[in-house]
Amino acid sequence: MARFVIGKIGQYAIVLWIAVTLNFALPRLMPGNPLALLAGEEPGMLTAQQRTQLMANVGLDQPLPAQYVRYLQNLARGDLGYSFQKNKPIATILADRLPWTLLLTVTSLLISTVLGVTLGAAAAWQRGGRRDVGLLGFFVFLESLPSFWVGMLLVALFAVQFPIFPTFGAVTPWMTLEGIAWVEDVARHLVLPLTTLTIVSVSGTFIVSRYSMLAVLGEDYISVARAKGLRERAVLFRHALRNALLPIATVFTLNLAFAFGGATVVETVFSYPGVGRLVYEAVLNRDYPVLQAAFLMITVMVVIANILADAIYPFLDPRVRHAQTRGGAQ
Amino acid sequence: MIWASLKRNPLGLVGLALLIAMLVMALGANWIAPYDPTRQTGEPFEPPSAAHWLGANDIGQDILSELIYGARISLLIGVLAAGIAMVIGTGVGLLAGYYRGAVGILLMRLVDVVLVIPFVPLMVLLAAYLGQNLWNLIAVIGLLIWARPARVIRSQVLSLAEREYVTAARAAGARDGHILIKHILPGVLSLALAQFVLATSSSILIEAYLSFLGLGDPTQKSWGAVLFYAQARNAFLSGAWVWWVIPPGLMITASVLGFALLGFALEEALNPRLKARAATTSWRAPTSPKAKPAVNKSPVSR
Predict the structure, then answer these.
(1) Do A153 and B113 touch (CB under 8 A)?
(2) DSSP calls for B278-292
(3) What is the interface pTM, i.e. ipTM, of the complex?
């Protein structure tokens, strides 16, 4: 057990180290002026004071190892750098954007999990049947749709041709709404991006649910439950689905981590003010420090989610728990 | 053998038909396309007419011709990126499955690490740093999607390495390199083919995302790039979305779907582990039911 845990933690530590080091190395090793890459701005555009501040902060005049140590120290203090283009610390920018992103991605994740699990179980229950093949074909089709295209079509249809929903943003600009009116405004802005994101992400949950359901349905205890004369419904919900939920829980935890990264493409189409849109703006403006901070934040969330998933799994599944105590788990 | 089992899989046949259509378009673009898509042959924002079936874009280029030539770029990037991923993936899979000691463990740790790194933000980061150029794009996509195929191939190698003929070859004094290439590689080639087709499907979609975000090669217009310009010029705010937004999206969907359907069908036909089961169980199947299902496309790309 201890060896297993240490091995896992070591692996995640390596992931974090790679991400951090890549972030450190990219602006310094790329051709061009590292000062420009670190600032995300042409050095000529910076004031003398900003330039001194930046030089002092990253220690660009010192040898690389010293810069590396300083970089790690800054990170440890939660200092993600400064965006000269937006004139704000990047940590503040991310904190402003996160609530919008989470509203969009977490809501979508919940909807697609409920839909995906239900339909996945329904498909697996009649494996190979018409409903199964039909659902499978439909979801593989959804998986092939480019999200930005779905978004553009929804805007064209439901915001322009039939102006039911707003075309962009998260709230109506230049209006100070309060209470219920504000909630309603936010909800109206959320509908199209949420629909787009759910259309393109539901198939992942469906496919995982269907597969893990199929694996469970082949187990002996399902045959036993049936042989006992339990009703189909009881077998499906109490015996099969409960066990099939284990891998689904893992995937859910991992997706929750990616939720922090936002949905760059969907947020871009709808100009939704989340982290994903921030990444797009940073690409457009070559604001490298912001791009790097976003990448780092997502990596940290993914690692945390992986650790959580590993930690939760033994509690959900006694088989894993016993295998690990025996030291047999890989 | 492949054909025989493919024939019984209607979804696989649909995929094959879609791909043949795309391939014909890409190879015959010179003859099929009515105009040179890089030259101004119509009025800017021209609606569809007999001369320009899908109208013209913001600088008067024929949209239909853009789409036909776009097949070349999108397929080229997809196939080459998947090729890079397969060379690395097959190599790592072979070595990791054959050498089970320190080498194998180390390689599989590497695979796990690559699978955990959120690759879409990383790809955006790398593409932004390396600059927009066709070859950078191919390399970045290829270097980040090899881990999944590596895993699948390793599990096949694990079982092949136990076969009698491998043991016999080893007893006869054959070197490891000889055994790997002569005896084990042929056994995984068909599986690698299925993985290659699936990787091409992902690569085409990833390229479309990157191009849509303005990270594509500006001199080589893929379908994603056509949509980038349509979005930048607000095509969906006018009637132009019908001929400027719908067709390129359909092209992307059709080719991604085509490769995916064919890939799943091949996987089913060629993977002995899956063949034993019922006909439709293999879709996106992780190699073992207790294994963590690999999330192969992070939702960030959306």
Answers:
(1) no
(2) -TTTTTT--SSTTSP
(3) 0.82
